Amino acid sequence: MKLINILVVSSLCLTLCLSTLVSSSLQPYQAIFNFGDSLSDTGNFLLSGALAFPVIGKLPYGETFFQHATGRCSDGRLVVDFIVEAFGLPLLPPYLALNKTQDIQHGVNFAVAGATALDPEFFYQRKIGPVMWTNDSLSTQLGWFKKLKPSLCSTKQECDNYFKKTLFLVGEIGGNDYNYAFFVGGNMEQLKASVPYVVGAITNATSALIEEGAVELLVPGNLPIGCSAVYLTLFQTTNRAYYDKRNGCLKAFNAFSKYHNSELKRALATLRQKYPHANIIYADYYGAAMPFFHAPQHYGFKSGTLRACCGGGGPYNFNNSARCGHIGSTACKDPSSYVNWDGIHLTEAAYRYIAEGLIHGQFTKPI
Fold it and tell me: Would you call 68 a catalytic residue per the annotation?
């Protein structure tokens, strides 16, 4: 069964739930391959040795579901984990953890926390390189996949049969391209000028995967960064006109996310014309997240949406000098009552709702 068919059925029958998909004897996909950044990294950043003692390698990270740190930038599972579980597949192993005897036929995760859509040279040329977490950009991850491909299939027919039952998640990616620049003082106009480059990198990678044989691809947009505790802290102002009255988010930054997403959707539409045989589906992370910012109590977020669960104080519980896991920070007792985990990333509870929105089809749109 194609994902496109699931989406049509799901949009007509919104009572479809994750448990139904999991229990179904007909599995639409036999494998899932994921590319991205910290929103979907399941351990590659830790394994890359990018930092000597990264805090995501210890509790409270991972406390909710795994009861230990896994390299995920959250208290528990991520959107990719819920998608994988929904199709009855095992959690994806991080690429850098693979060994010669490991079964990779059900998929692999190439995402790396801090990764960018654009290559590192773009940022080093603009004097931003030193603040980057990693140089393992989207093109590096694509290279890893190409290196791994011969282990998955050896002939064109074998690859065609394998990939028609395989889902490729291309992101979320691109958020860090903007984060790095915003956090070192880049202005809105400068960042808007970079959007075509970032979107181009995402669509080029999507195109490259199709050329490698991918036919089922899910490409997410950006989250509403104006509702993120790190942005609300770094760019806070006493001028209430900068905040939307309903949610308390920074209007200009949410507008920027929407601009990136609109440009990405436009580019994917063009890409689909080039590859009519491929199902290129846009995942609306922004749309899936906004309902619980609008009505947090309805989704069980009784502790709010803008304050981080884990942090070192301040109006949004984000303190750059005492970030989650560092000395001076504490974690809340019930992460499921929060949307925001550490000021940058979301809680497992929030990721679950986003995943449900995608799987139900309400926020996954064929281009």
Answer: no
Q: Which pLDDT score, from 0 to 100, does residue 27 have? A: 54
- Structural domain boundaries enclosing 117: 3-366
State the average pLDDT over residues 129-138: 94
Q: Quick one: average pLDDT of 149-160? A: 96
- Joined tokens for residue 315: 């109006």
pLDDT at residue 7 in the model? 39
Q: Catalytic residue at 337?
A: no
Q: Enumerate residues 6+ apart whose C-beta is below 8 A from 7.
A: 281, 361, 364, 366
Give the number of other CB atoms < 10 A from CB of residue 243: 17
The one-letter code for the residue type at 144 is W
Q: Which residue in 40, 137, 284, 345 is the catalytic one?
A: 345
pTM, two decimal places? 0.92
State the catalytic residue, choosing from 38, 74, 137, 329.
38
Cα–Cα dist 282/272, whole Å: 11
The total number of structural domains in the chain stands at 1
CATH assignment of the domain containing 220: 3.40.50.1110
